[in-house]
Amino acid sequence: MLRLRAICPFSWRVFQFRPFSFEPLLNQMNKCTDEEQIFDLIEKNKDILSEKQVACALSMLWQFQKQKSILLKNVECIRDHPQFLTLHNLTTTKMEFMNDSTLVNVLYIIQQFGFEAHDPLVEALVTEAWRRLERFDINVLSKFSSCLADQHLCFSPLMGKIADIVNRNLETIQDLRCLSVLMVSISSLISQRFQEQLVNKTEQLFDTIDSSQVNIARRIVQFLRNIKYSYYPLLERCNKVFLSNVNHLDLDSISKILSLYHSLQFHSFEFILMTKKRLTEMIPLFDYPASFVKLFVTLGPVAGPEEEKQLKSTILLMSEELTSQQALAVMGAMEEMESRNSRLIKKIASILHKHLDNYKPVELLRITQASIFLHFQSKELFVKLRELLLSYLKVSVIPSEISLLICALSMLPSPHLDEARISQIEAVLPQCDLNDLNSFATSVLRCIQYDHMYRNNIPGKQLKLLQKLDHYGRQRLQKCSSLNLLWEEVKSLKGDWFADSLLEETVVTLQRLMDEINYINVAGIASFISRTNYLSTSLLDRIASVVLQQIEKIHPFAILAIILPFSALNYDPPQRDEFFGTCLQRLNSYLSILDPLMLVFLGYSLATREYFSEDLLKAIFNIRFLAKLDSQLEHFECILDKRKNPLPYGSHNTTLGKLPKIHSELNTQIAGSRLPPGAEKIALEFLDSRAFCRNIPHLKGKSAMKKRHLEILGYRVIQIPHFEWNSMALSTKNARMDYLRERIFGEGKSSS
């Protein structure tokens, strides 16, 4: 022993005095229960840490964060710890020795701790990963692509390289989880042909995942949203995954899925019904703004009256704690809910006003739109908005940004375009697409209308600008050589200028390109024709021909949109019976799962063409279907006895705007129940502006159909138009009470 000490005095001295444990350091790290224990190990062993131990320490720190609730997360505190800086520096020196999987995982964790793309360590990790890119397996490649996407590098050459690798190896990829991550990451860079290949590959691999893989299904839907492709077969399969796991979906997941569905215009009655119940159960669970705002935004637009009341009262209580972005989200949701809660509107508007300097141009437009729609009047807010919009406008050179700024300005009180603004618009017209041109024209028309009504003058320069907008719009249509490119620009166009100036030219362009109509775009083109009410027999005949030739590729969910223009425009194609019969045959196996309202509209559309399907009629006229439709209609219900006194059914009181409280409950709970002799069921429905034609107060078909349906179920239906309820005549509480007594009970005015 003494001889050994004499031979190796240095080694013995190191062994004798260094802090050590007989247990390997990795095992010690894995047994740590909090961050301080990890940091303690780092401090004691920083001179001897290997690349594996550095990676393990980072991984453990991130695991501790993931296990905490939102309120308990302390990412900034951990990131600023002296020993985290030690780890940061060690990672820089050790990264080249890390294997591929460890390298990318470390990059992911560093980003989760809030390090930006310009941080030297992040840059070094990305560079090292790029150097190894070709040898990455599919799992590592997918995680790396996700890291780049988080850095907003979706359009970078590096992401392009990843897209190329995926393209070259697509046939050999068998892991849909990894592929779905890659699809979302590279979706901004790939061609239409590559998009179709990825969709086909996804369909092939879909059956390899089990029904619990919600995240995979959500990424597939996100990919479809990114490439703007409402591919119903995949959407339907993903929707089944969501439905089978709905009881396990958290608020984040439900919010994301509904947002994606909205973007894709995909409507699942069953999913909305089930998630509405799930979200309602969450109302008492959230008492901090970040999550409750998300709940408000997600549930609010589909909430019943009682849930809506709870949401509004709670958000009002926590309004002082809202950030600028949370207040903006709440205001947008209130606009969608058509809220008339003046107290909440005023409170949220005051928060927006306080943070107005921090909003981007598109956010200022959203604030302007919501304020006008919700009838919020504040001279101070509008003055500040105008100042900010003009300041942005003076330095803006991007056509789309200029158009939205001009749009917001035109919505404010006393809109006016000076010569500088007109010149700015004229300068960018050659770069504008049809959406920009339509936005400019709508704004100019608002200003012209104001000048005509209040200044008794229409500046000639504004009229000349309108003529230039017409010219550039027609020119763009005449030069268009691709139906898909045309469709991207015209599918959302609306308003007087488009209808008066460009609609005819648009239809001529569609006729010129109609050989490109196929199973992918046929439903969209049909919807456009229905919306514009423009009868083009050649286009409708082409639509019918595509349906007959490619019906197996057309999803049943698209059938109503295809049939609608033939019904709305009172036109039969040459092969009328074969066309309608083919559509119905494609739809038959889906009759039991279609949205109830969609099914009713389908029956109505076919009836207008004097085409009656026995299977469709059986699907509509049965008790189970009527119950589903009844649950979707929801309006408000009360029951009166023969003396016109409300009967005390249920425990819920519902209000309509500021309507008096009536003992009532949702009609789904008591519809079909036996009533006392002489009693009657009353359904009350508030009709907003969307229930009427744009130019005259004529009730549209949807609300008329609801009324007929409820009358069949035995209700006396009272429909209250928004233009009556919001009129000056009903500006006081007493006036509204008298109005309701007259409508519901047939009584005269109150003496109070």
From TrEMBL:
It is found in: Mitochondrion. The lineage of its organism: Eukaryota, Metazoa, Chordata, Craniata, Vertebrata. One of its GO terms (biological process) is regulation of mitochondrial mRNA stability. Pfam families: FAST_1 (PF06743), RAP (PF08373). It comes from the Eukaryota. Residues 682-742 form the RAP domain. GO terms for molecular function: kinase activity; RNA binding. PANTHER family: FAST KINASE DOMAIN-CONTAINING PROTEIN 1, MITOCHONDRIAL, FAST LEU-RICH DOMAIN-CONTAINING. It comes from Balaenoptera acutorostrata. This is FAST kinase domain-containing protein 1, mitochondrial isoform X3. One of its GO terms (cellular component) is ribonucleoprotein granule. The keyword DNA-binding does not apply. Keywords: Kinase, Mitochondrion, Transferase. Its main location: mitochondrion.
